[in-house]
Amino acid sequence: MISSETEKYLRYRWLIFSLLCFSYILVYFHRLCPAVLAVDIMRDLNATGALTGLLGAAYFYPYALMQLPAGLLSDSWGSRKTITLFSIIAFIGSLILGKAQSVLVAIIGRTLVGIGVSMLFVPTMKILAEWFHAREFAFMTGILMAMGGLGSFIVAAPLVWLNSWIGWRNSFILIGIFTLALAILVGIFVRNSPSDFNMQSHSAPAKGTDSRISLWMGVTKVIACRNFWPLAIWFFFNCGIFFSFGGLWGGPYMMHVYHLSQSESGNILSMIAAGMVVGSPLLSFLSDKIFKGRKPVMVLSGIAMIIITGLLAFYTDGLSKIGLYALCFFMSVFSSAIVVIAFTMNKELFSVQMAGTATGLINLFPFAGGAVFQPFLGYILECFGKGKDSFTLAGYKAAFLTLFISSLIAFGAVLFSKETISKS
Known about the structure:
The chain is mainly alpha-helical. The protein has one domain (10-192, 215-415): Up-down Bundle (Growth Hormone, Chain: A), CATH 1.20.1250.
């Protein structure tokens, strides 16, 4: 029979997980919304492609830089305080972005948003490691990423509707208010560990062991681990592909090359959400139950991304509308949902006492990829000039060739990664 204390523990961890999932929905909204609103923002702020790329990347630069502090704060100051404080910063940034009358002010607002939401994922991984057993970690991470997929869905068709109703400025203000509300709820209800209720954490060390690892000792151990670096390289190039296409240039590509409306492109981009919702738990299941390994799933995804980016690079204007739907869905599965497996591999390389630091360090690389790729693709598009209010087909071909080459590099990194799943 389950004791009353155990029942309380089981109920409360799901309350915590639910609040963090809703917060993660907003993280993905903030991350990917420029893909839907890019054309309107360029028009209203009189921005070039390069400046629009910089605006989109203004989220990723601070997000990447804050990943090490995120890990350190999670392991020292605590996840609950970290998430609450920085979510308030994201709220302020979203208000500034909504009120911006120039590209510079918009970049400042989006930078604050990037700083604020950068402190959600890593602390959440730390909380999951404390509240859930190691055998549950990959599945729970998959559910979290699936909730991020809901954020991607909100970015697509519903955001197009919201934009047509109240405009992109008020849309940012409204989502900022939701961000503040969730920050308050996290501050009230979330707890870092079952030990806050005088119960044992799943990460509690064995008796007689010393769990104290200094912050910078943890950083040194992670950086010195040679198996860390193939994952880091994979994250940079793989997520650079996803964030540059799904997070910014996918929408303009479909509107400029295929002459689709904003609503039609938004509907197609909603497949990114579907791919995450379906792919995150599916890939976790394949890894845990079918392949009983992490690396085979990573290799499969690498091959799929070579095919997908090859279609973009060599059949840029030759895809049907159904093909565009399928491309966005499978790109989401194999370049976004797959990070569930990569994050789990990274966690399994290190002790749970270093979970925040290890996750923070590896999480620097995907957002560094987004920060580099978004403006770089914008620069390539600008170099090939503009047609009538749109970038040229040749520009998109050149930009997507960059993504194809990146997929080859990411696949090479996967081949050098280490299998981490326990066979016991």
